[in-house]
Structure formats: C-alpha cells, structure tokens
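To the team - NAI complex, inputs and output below.
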Amino acid sequence: MSSESQEATKILLLENIHAVASDTFNAAGKPRDIATFPGSPSEEQLVEMLRGVKILGIRSKTNITEGVLRAAPDLVAVGCFCIGTDQVDLEAARRHGVAVFNAPFSNTRSVAELALAEIIMLARKAAQRSMELHRGKWEKSAKGCVEVRRKTLGVVGYGHIGPQIGLLAEALGMKVVFHDIVKKLALGNARQTVDLDELLKEADFVTMHVPDTPLTRKMIGAEQFALMKPGSFLLNLSRGAVVDIPALRDALESGQIAGAALDVYPQEPASGKDPFESEVRGFENVILTPHIGGSTEEAQYNIGIEVAESLSYFFDEGTSIGCVNLPEAQLPVSGDSVRIINIHKDMPGVLSRINGLIASLHVNIKAQTYHTRDGVGYLIMDAEKGLSRDIGAEIEALDSNIRTRLLF
Ligand code: NAI
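Output:
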C-alpha cells in the first residue's frame, strides 16, 4: 500500500519524450522527481531503472512485459506518449493494477490538414507535375485539373478527425457529406448520408477516417469503386486494411478513379531499413506518404501534455478517464477528506467489505464511485478526514485486493 501525500513522486521518462511532459508534471503543484533517458533500455536495464519509480513514460519502442511489471512493484501507471499501446501487455498491467494511458486524439488536426492539402494536390495533379519536373519534363497543362470549390467531399467515419476535415473543406467552398455507422451531429453544413453507397455516388473526393474493425476491413473494394463517380479521388489516412489495394489498382488502371492519396498500408515496413512494397507504387497520380498523417511537432507537443495530464490526474486524484486497461472513473475533489483508491478483483461483496471496514471505525464515507471492467473493479472513495491511515493495510489484506493507495 502506498500513501502518496508525502514523498516526491519518482517519474521516469524514456525515448526522448517531449520536454513539455516534464513541465506538465511539475505544473500539477506536487513534489516530483523526474528522470529522463533518451533511448529505450533493455528489459534488464529497465527493471533496474524502475526501482522506486511510480510513473513511467514510454513511446513505441519500450516493451512493458509481464516480467517488467512483476519486477516493478512500485509502478502505479504507464503513459504511452504516442497513439498505440501494443508495446504494453495491457492484460498483465491490469492484473498488476498498473494503469496505462495514451494520447489517441492529440494529432487529429495534423491528419485533417494533410488530408486537405492532398485533396488540392490531387485536384491539381500537383504531385504528378512535381515528379515530372524532377525528371526534367515541363508539362504545363490545365487538362483534368480542377478547383475544389463547389466539389463534394465524402467523409467516411465522422469521429474526431472526420468533422475537422469537413469544416476545413467547407472553408474552401466544398460541399460535405459524411457516412458514419452511428447517427452523428453534423458540423457546419455537412449532411449525413443514408448509407455508404449514397456517399460514394455523390462525392468527388472520398476520404476515409474509420478505425480498423472487422466491419471496416476492405470496406472500399471493387464494388465500392464501381459506385464512385468516374474520375473521382480516394484518400486513406486511417488504417491500411480499410482499402482493398488490388481493387484500387484496378480502379486506377481503368481510369474509374482519377487518383488517390495513401498514408497507411495493409503491410507497413517495420523501420526505415525495410523496403516499402505496394501494388500502387509507380502510379504517378497516387500520392504516397509513410504514415505521417499525425506526425507533426504540434502533435508531439500535444501528446506530451495530454499523457502527462492523464497520468497526473490518475496519480494525484485517482481519475482514470482515458485509461486503456482499467475501468474509467472520476470523483470531484471536495477537500477535507481522505481519498482511498482501490483496484481489486471483481468478485461479489468487495464493496460491502470495504465499506464495512470504514463503518467499523465510525467514520463517514463522504462520496464514492465504482466501476468494473474485464474482471477488475476500480473504487474511488472519500472518507472523513479523521480516518486512520492504517485503513490502507486493512483493505490491502482483503483477498480481492490488487492495489490500494491513500491520497490526501
Ligand atoms: P474516431 O474513433 O474518433 O472516429 C472513427 C469514426 O468511425 C467513429 O465516428 C465511428 O463511429 C466511425 N465508424 C466506425 N466503424 C464504422 C463503419 N463500419 N462505418 C462507418 N463509420 C464507422 O477515430 P479518429 O480519431 O477520427 O481516427 C480515424 C482513423 O484515423 C483511425 O483509424 C485512426 O487509427 C487513424 N489515424 C491515423 C493517423 C495517421 O497518422 N495517418 C493518425 C491518427 C489517427
């Protein structure tokens, strides 16, 4: 059991996490002891470095395995200062009561801006003209080049990124229609279509912004290309599996599709050392970018703030909103109370046993919130200030206990 009110919290930030993360931790007004390390240590090194560390920040290269978690009993939370969390054994982290956070939405604007730029580049064949000039060919022609004003943009997936592209496109005078599996509030003058087919038939540009799910895999294939307007364009800056690449190649070869912009691929090279292979390599009317839609300085900065804030709220107040492996819960800080955080195995009677322990001390419970997920329960409880801090050890002794912390 740990009592988080006294000592400076040891924080370790690996892999050159943006400096704004340290500033954000310090801005929370609690004592912090922050160490940074530029690279990604070996598992052995990491275990050594994690002694006494309560908060660990990583990017995509450091693997947090069951072995690391077992060897780091002080660790309370891991922040992935990136989008993905595949590098962390989330299930093991849940069993060890270690909360994992990431920054899924810090780069939405960056993606929207690139998509918008590519819409204009495609409409003007600008990437093609650039490649020709690099080869010494001066092709000054207006043939097939159009303004985007008054053209229709079809946005597939109207979550965080989709509406931003819609609004930016409207500023350029485009008409926006969108399709989403869920009924969505349309921003600006956008209109939700009845289904995907309606969007495909109407749009001059179709831009994909859906997640990778069984329903979205190859959701744009031969049938969908056939429905699209002849001479229209496709953009995919979402996930590689969403577009059937051989079908795209066929649609490009037949001229049904006038061009495409791809940022994501079904198979992406693991690193810059591996070659990039794709059936659409060599098409000059296809803009290819190496999964850089969200890769901007601003996105890195925003990620630094977003993850450090999530970790601080979790560590200092127990707020688990945005946590990827524990139940999400939040309780407003009322002051003048002792806050108990308990992560436990979800089994009958846990709450009543914890409440019973508090009641037996004749102490009032002022507020509590409780959620369960995937076999784990998460409790935030505020009890009257006079509560003995020995209560932590008593809760910890329950067979349901995974981790107990006493805050303020
Ligand atoms: P989001 O989760 O906020 O929105 C996705 C939307 O798609 C939701 O509104 C959802 O209801 C909708 N959707 C899900 N299944 C659907 C289906 N079968 N048909 C129609 N709509 C469906 O996601 P966000 O943040 O807007 O990201 C969109 C995509 O962009 C994700 O795949 C994400 O991984 C990717 N992405 C790519 C980046 C890059 O570097 N190229 C950077 C950031 C995100």
